[in-house]
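Input record (one chain):
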Amino acid sequence: MGKATHATTGRSDLLRHAGAAAAALVLPSLPAAAADGADFTLQIKSRPNIVLILADDLGYGDLGCYGQSVIQTPNLDQMAQQGMRFTQHYAGCTVCAPSRGTLMTGLHTGHAYMRGNSNVALPYDTVTVASLLQQAGYRTAMIGKSSIACNDDDPDRPNRLGFDHFFGVLTHEQAHYYYPPTVWRDGQAIELPGNHGNDGDTYVHDLYIEDARQWIAQQAQSDEPFFLFYSAHLPHASMSVTQEWVDKYRGQVGEDRAVENKHYADCDAVKATFAGMVSRLDWEVGQILEALRQAGADENTIVFFASDNGAMNEGGHLEEDFNSSGPLRGVKRDLTEGGIRTPLIVRWPNHVEAGGECEHVSAFWDFLPTACDLAGIATPDGLDGISFLPALAGDLANQKQHEYLYWEFHERDGRRALRLGNFKVVQNDVDTGDSPIEVYDVTTDIGEEHDIADQQPGVVARAKQLFVDCRTTSPLPQFNWKTP
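The corresponding structure, as predicted from the sequence alone:
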């Protein structure tokens, strides 16, 4: 097998390429089969608006449409009924920064610049999905948690990386709290009144959803399409949500502990608060969908919903409280399925078949090429992502498949993983030496309970080669293995 290569192309060249493609716009019409056997065709008559709603640390099993029985998520459940639910979609990594980086750039963590939660931000010349859409005439916005920096002192970075409008917090640490002292609007600081950290006068998500509604309404006044990235904090720790959402579950979910710690906010009702945070996020999804309807943009807007990694055990919340990983093994910071498999719901009335379920194997780095296809622009060369637009039409016969999916994680002595067809390959403790390779058939063993590496020597051998071939050396030393 030949060594995978990562082509490098200048930002200006890529944007000229995208702009030329947009000028010669050709949009696909893809046939598909509906669930009842009737023909269904994805016909794109004009460039759609694109909305991406990204949860933070939401588990695969935290939504009703993915098996949750306690936490109420009526808007997302309805969105799944009106659209398509993916069952084998993967986040970019098992923690925030690298996962979001793959989504922004179309590169997996073997090629990406951001490969971990560290003091790192995307360089200013990075080609992002936002910059490509912006160059093609889309108006672009990111609201919420910045997905392009862990720690950053440049409030203009989101705007310089393709977002016409940014409103939110700049760093991951700031996104741990729901009553921050400062938010940023297009490079300008806005100081918020009241207490900060545990409680305060301004719940930041109130500001986010209002800004999103207003921005959508403003875009309805123009004939140009838009891209909105609604980058939620919820339900990431700290455990914090306004009182009416806690009260929705208080007394219904047996509380057995309170939280007092230095890193996250104190909480005296951990379970009710977490459940309320998920339901609050679900309500915000409903608000965004309603804003699209009120703006007359509902039918020409494709909405994606996903989570940036698996369920967390942080801030007092435990995955086992609500079976947040569902049938999957593991949580955030694991590369087993519970750490990286995510819900993905896609809704586009009269385009994506309502009530559909898709088993296509896809990942965050596929979002950029899919968005390019939706916008009718060329996807840059040298990316790891594959457009899943045919899968959205139910046309799996014409859907290109990944040869493999790859992840690496540079905490807890180093971890890496592959998805190879039906097989999932996991290797822990990479930095300590020659650690064993585990193999699971996740189509028959979704919980990764039975390691069959000894029965699959060919898969193990292929994985060893891919672990070398499908990554490049990072320019940041903290994102390279300590052992060869």
